[in-house]
Write a structure and sequence with these properties.
Layout lengths: L2 H9 L1 H10 L21 E5 L2 E4 L4 E4 L2 H4 L8 H13 L8 H13 L5 E5 L2 H16 L3 E5 L34 E4 L4 H9 L3 E6 L4 H4 L1 E2 L2 H13 L3 E5 L11 H5 L6 E4 L10 E5 L1 H4 L9 H7 L11 H16 L2 H22 L4 E6 L2 E6 L22 H13 L2 E2 L4 E3 L6 H20 L5
Parallel strand pairs: 3-14, 5-6, 5-7, 7-9, 9-10
Antiparallel strand pairs: 1-2, 2-3, 4-11, 10-11, 12-13, 13-15
Helix pairs in contact: 1-15, 4-13, 5-13, 7-9, 14-16, 15-16
Bound molecules: pyridoxal-5'-phosphate.
Length: about 450
């Protein structure tokens, strides 16, 4: 065993004890695929701002940020206070309530395409609802999605589906389910045009900045072209803003990049760190959910039904409403972006100084890493090279995470999400951790 792993194991004995128990409870010992980690995951005890602490007392700069939900960082006082106040009034009324109205109004105020909104309990439910609404509205069945783009785990969008696979497939989903799905290579406007030409596509869904929160970046020009082609063919454009919404700007990617979809799906930041999602967009599409008292034919044959015990839960509504108001008025997105820019510049300066084959880049407050490959260092933060970014060399991925854990940084994948609570101290700590990690990796002959 190398020194890096030895250190990780020595520093995480109490986490190991939980992991040993968890293995007998959960498949792979975890409750989310992305949390599976070898030799075992860290178990976190508490968090604050841009940091978190594990059960062994180790402190980390946190780049997971609640899987992207925490643009304001952990435990923002105003949000915590709103949650406390809501809990005092009750956890669940099973009835309409005041906060859901204010939360919904706030969403419509902030999201450019938003004319009506329906809350769900997660992002997965939001994309599922968006596609169902699009099918009901257009009377078409086919859906176009982009290869590798992630929209949750419901039947239609699940699986690693590349266009060159002979047939899209995910275990547990009936084969016939995919008959109405077309997968197109991201960035190829010609292929998209062909897929939509038959005018039989209900919706095209995409992650606006590219697959896996922009790990495989998508150009703004492609998004504009997708908007043009979908409008031309009567296809609804569904922007999945579960990650980018309320992060890239108060109105999300659609505001920042100036492309307005027909529908957008949201979750994460939307609910201020508690569970929640929504679909918003054109009134005539969302109104497919409307119950019409005098129209039995509509209610039974045309209307899309929707239930959900935790839709617009009062505590989530309180957290979400407070978070969105802060984001609208307090420059939170800009602050997170500025910190991310400082971090990316700091990492690239470090890689140059140490002649590390790698680079960092970002879109808004989402940053990514290439490591172990000779990759060009972006001129100005964003990925502007002709070739696709390559990520972290697979053989390096785990040792890098171990080394960074040892030096107090928790990445999300090959990069991370920055919050408005991160600042110069977190940037310095992260660059310092990378400096130490590079030394460790080189000492074990893992990095050139
Ligand atoms: C772009 C995107 N869409 C949908 C989802 C699913 O959201 P949830 O995990 O709330 O079901 C995610 C989750 O990470 C996501 O990143």
């Amino acid at each position: 065993m190398g020194k890096i792993l030895e250190t990780f194991e020595a520093m995480h004995a109490r986490s190991k004890a939980y992991a040993d128990r968890a293995r007998h409870v959960f498949p792979s010992g975890v409750t989310h695929d992305a949390r599976a980690f070898a030799p075992w995951p860290i178990y976190v005890e508490r968090a604050a701002g841009g940091r978190k602490w594990d059960v062994d007392g180790n402190q980390y700069v946190d780049y997971i940020g609640g899987h992207g939900a925490l643009l304001l960082g952990h435990n923002r006082p105003e949000v915590m206070e709103a949650i406390r106040a809501a809990l005092e009034r009750g956890t669940h009324f099973g009835s309409s309530h005041d906060l859901e109205v204010e939360w919904g109004e706030q969403v419509l105020k902030m999201v450019p395409c938003g004319e009506r909104v329906r809350f769900t309990s997660s992002g997965t439910e939001a994309t599922m609802m968006a596609l169902r609404l699009a099918r009901a509205f257009t009377g078409r069945e086919r859906v176009v999605k982009l290869a590798e783009h992630f929209h949750g785990w419901h039947d239609l969008v699940v699986g690693r589906l590349r266009p060159d696979d002979p047939h899209p497939h995910s275990p547990g989903v009936p084969e016939g389910f995919y008959d109405s799905l077309t997968i197109v290579e991201p960035g190829d406007a010609g292929a998209l045009g062909e897929a939509l030409a038959g005018r039989d596509v209900a919706a095209m869904i995409l992650e606006p900045t590219g697959a896996h929160w922009g790990t495989e970046p998508l150009a703004r020009e492609y998004l504009q072209e997708a908007r043009r082609l979908t409008a031309e063919t009567g296809t609804l454009l569904v922007m999945d803003e579960v990650i980018t919404g309320f992060r890239m700007a108060p109105g999300g990617c659609q505001e920042r990049w100036g492309v307005t979809p027909d529908l957008s799906s949201h979750a994460k930041i939307l609910a201020g760190g508690l569970p929640g999602g929504c679909v918003t967009g054109r009134a005539e599409v969302i109104s497919m959910l409307e119950i019409r008292d005098e129209d039995a034919e509509w209610n039974s044959k045309r209307r899309v039904s929707h239930q959900g015990t935790y839709n617009a839960n009062p505590a989530a509504a309180a957290a979400g409403l407070t978070a969105l108001r802060l984001i609208e008025t307090q420059g939170e997105c800009e602050r997170a972006d500025a910190t991310t820019a400082a971090l990316v510049r700091g990492l690239n300066a470090l890689f140059r100084e140490l002649s590390v084959p790698g680079s960092a880049w970002c879109v808004s407050s989402m940053w990514h890493l290439n490591l172990g490959y000779e990759a060009p260092i972006p001129e100005d933060l964003k990925w502007d090279a002709r070739e696709a970014p390559r990520g972290v060399l697979p053989a390096l991925a785990r040792p890098l995470r171990w080394a960074l854990f040892n030096h107090g940084v928790d990445l999300m994948g090959n990069g991370g999400m920055v919050s408005s609570a991160h600042g110069p101290a977190e940037v310095d700590a992260t660059v310092g951790a990378f400096r130490a990690a590079v030394g460790d990796l080189r000492a074990e002959g893992l990095l050139g």
